[in-house]
Amino acid sequence: MIPGVGVLTQDTLWCFSQVKGTIEIGATEADIISAVEFNHTGELLATGDKGGRVVIFQREQESKNQVHRRGEYNVYSTFQSHEPEFDYLKSLEIEEKINKIRWLPQQNAAYFLLSTNDKTVKLWKVSERDKRPEGYNLKDEEGRLRDPATITTLRVPVLRPMDLMVEATPRRVFANAHTYHINSISVNSDYETYMSADDLRINLWNFEITNQSFNIVDIKPANMEELTEVITAAEFHPHHCNTFVYSSSKGTIRLCDMRASALCDRHTKFFEEPEDPSNRSFFSEIISSISDVKFSHSGRYIMTRDYLTVKVWDLNMENRPIETYQVHDYLRSKLCSLYENDCIFDKFECVWNGSDSVIMTGSYNNFFRMFDRNTKRDVTLEASRENSKPRAILKPRKVCVGGKRRKDEISVDSLDFSKKILHTAWHPSENIIAVAATNNLYIFQDKVN
């Protein structure tokens, strides 16, 4: 039996297996995956990389011979979304790296997605073409215009079959609105607007207007020396088009209502957990910075990820989270060396499963963690090339801190901090997950008998 999303029982541990071998995107710095996102049906999976490319994978349909075998994901389209640029006014290079990808719900045969680098958001249309028109009257077969005087007969143009082509075309380019680096984009539930957030400002855009945006949050102080926090992530509520949240480097979350005022400089709700004075250290502020914020599909909860924990907040309770999950608490004693090698500034993402019952986030050594909110059980799994055979079942991993190490455990001192799972995605309705480990994309699904 294939357990459905959210039907994991008390005596069931997540049992994910490899859908297919590792999908290696490439081997250079530009090939490192920087964004992963399923579309609303889960039939498409998009990845963005540091080289500015977007690769879209499509799920194969079930074959008639193997009805119960669900389709694998294969490359559907690849296109260059962003190019490196140079800002001559500020003498700054603008990287082509894709920071975020967001899909729009499918309205017709074409697919639409937003992709952004540090400065520019683009709306892409991805469409199929398997027919070509023939029999023009005013053009010859090469496409050159004919002299109307030479046309003596009229033809009816016809569509001829051709090999399937997938075309990606930029429909809108939203530029010149951000002074600082864009860290988030989020599509509103009205599907007419979206927002983009950088370190100090959040802008609201209409999909049809590229030369104007509305500034809805501005936390830039008059004197930049008084700057104490920056915006780290922002997202719209999944159902209420007037509500959004944004997180800060101080570990706080603000819920704003756009009906209150045009500039949401006053929050409606403020979520913050008071710090335990006994745990205060030099690194407290750094590790409390929130790297990702996500609404649950129901819209009732907010999930946040900081360096060591994942927290779940109830929208109706602002003073503390209702759930806190330790992702890699064994690193608390390693914060000094993690600060020296800059790993302490890594920005991990977090995702919900389709029913909001399980959450997933990444760690080091190509480990990723899953937490069941109902049973309070958790598991550590590894995305590695050694066990990346198709249909291979992932074995739970454990990290030991000091003392004797068991055979199946790995010592905290031998963790590889250059291998990190920063970006993950969960299929909207099934137990299929996508995990980006540097330049490798792993796709796992729950155990198939």
From TrEMBL:
<dbReference type="GO" id="GO:0019888">
    <property type="term" value="F:protein phosphatase regulator activity"/>
</dbReference>
<dbReference type="InterPro" id="IPR036322">
    <property type="entry name" value="WD40_repeat_dom_sf"/>
</dbReference>
<dbReference type="InterPro" id="IPR015943">
    <property type="entry name" value="WD40/YVTN_repeat-like_dom_sf"/>
</dbReference>
<dbReference type="InterPro" id="IPR018067">
    <property type="entry name" value="PP2A_PR55_CS"/>
</dbReference>
<protein>
    <recommendedName>
        <fullName>Serine/threonine-protein phosphatase 2A 55 kDa regulatory subunit B</fullName>
    </recommendedName>
</protein>
<dbReference type="InterPro" id="IPR001680">
    <property type="entry name" value="WD40_rpt"/>
</dbReference>
<dbReference type="GO" id="GO:0000159">
    <property type="term" value="C:protein phosphatase type 2A complex"/>
</dbReference>
<comment type="similarity">
    <text>Belongs to the phosphatase 2A regulatory subunit B family.</text>
</comment>
<dbReference type="InterPro" id="IPR000009">
    <property type="entry name" value="PP2A_PR55"/>
</dbReference>
<keyword id="KW-0677">Repeat</keyword>
<keyword id="KW-0853">WD repeat</keyword>
